Amino acid sequence: MVNKLSEAQQNYIEVIYELSEEHSHAHVKNIANRLNVSMPTVTEALRHLEELNLVNHKHRQPVTLTSKGRKIAELLDKRHKVFSDFFRNILGFDSGYSENTACKLEHVIDDKLKERLLQFNIFLREYSQRTDCNIIEDFKKYIN
To answer: Hey, what's the torsion of the CAs at 55, 60, 61, 65, to 10 degrees?
Structure first.
């Protein structure tokens, strides 16, 4: 299902998820502020997401994710965290760059590449833990 959503729709789901995690709810105004869009734009986007059974939204009420929307949000959140971690802790980029790049990348690459990058990240961490060679630390020394 996540592949059928536009990047903008995925961003809305992520923001609703983040706000819900931070404040236990999300409001149209907070979503608009986070995405730097107008409240009518948010309302229109929520209408479309509601048609897809991804959010619950009633006028002047908090926005919530449906169970289907929450599953998508959790998948997007996991991908984002893994990519951000990979860029920061393996490739050695600063956290701002890592977060920004992870956010962009997670929406534009296909599932095959996403899965391979996730597997590679896990492999590097496991390999470094069970051998005398810490390839991650060696790489960090190499790039400096």
So the answer is: 20
| pLDDT tens string 107-122 | 888 878 888 888 888 8
Alpha carbon distances (Å) from 132 to 44, 49, 127, 141: 55, 50, 9, 16
Residue type at 124 in one-letter notation: L
Least confident window among 2-6, 22-26, 131-135: 131-135
Whether domain 78-143 has CATH 1.10.60: yes
**With respect to CATH, is domain 2-71 assigned 1.10.8.60?**
no
Average pLDDT score, the chain: 90
* CATH 1.10.60 domain range(s) in the chain: 78-143
Q: How far apart are alpha carbons 61 and 56 in whole angstroms?
A: 9
Contact 134, 126 (CB under 8 A): no
Q: How far is CA 10 from CA 51, 76, 86, in A?
A: 15, 8, 21
Every domain range in the chain assigned CATH 1.10.10.10? 2-71
CB 22 within 8 A of CB 30: no
